[in-house]
Amino acid sequence: MMPQFPQPTFYIFKCEQSSPPGMPKPSCVNGETQELFGHMAQGLMQRGIMGAVQPIRTSCLGRCQMGPVMLVEPGHFMYVGLTKEKIDKILDEHIIGGNPVNEFLIPEQFWGEPIKLKQ
Ligand code: FES
Hints:
The chain has helices at 36-46, 84-96; strands at residues 10-15, 53-58, 70-73, 77-79. By secondary structure, the chain is an alpha+beta fold. It has one domain (10-109): Glutaredoxin. The protein has a 4-stranded mixed sheet with strand order 2-1-3-4, covered by helices on one side. It is globular. It binds FE2/S2 (inorganic) cluster. FE2/S2 (inorganic) cluster is lined by residues 15, 17, 19, 23, 27-28, 60-64, 67, 69.
């Protein structure tokens, strides 16, 4: 039988938390940055790609100082310092066009190689 429910191509995890205690500020949601998740979701609908892309609200992604942040999977693409305009460009160029927007990605020194699991 054919699968009835295809999986999304992308997941976009948008941090929706103010810095938890002990984490460096500023964080991902305060004041006008509250509108960013809605803007992203609306952008997916306007482009007809809701479903192919699943937006997910998350808690802290551990990079509060560079907030607002969102993580695009697959590929561990961590976008930082977001605005509505930057989100629009990410949807058009990365999600639809297939080219990550390098200038909005987290600097490499803050996003090193994945931590290896102990064996
Ligand atoms: S509050 Fe968003 S990364 Fe920590």
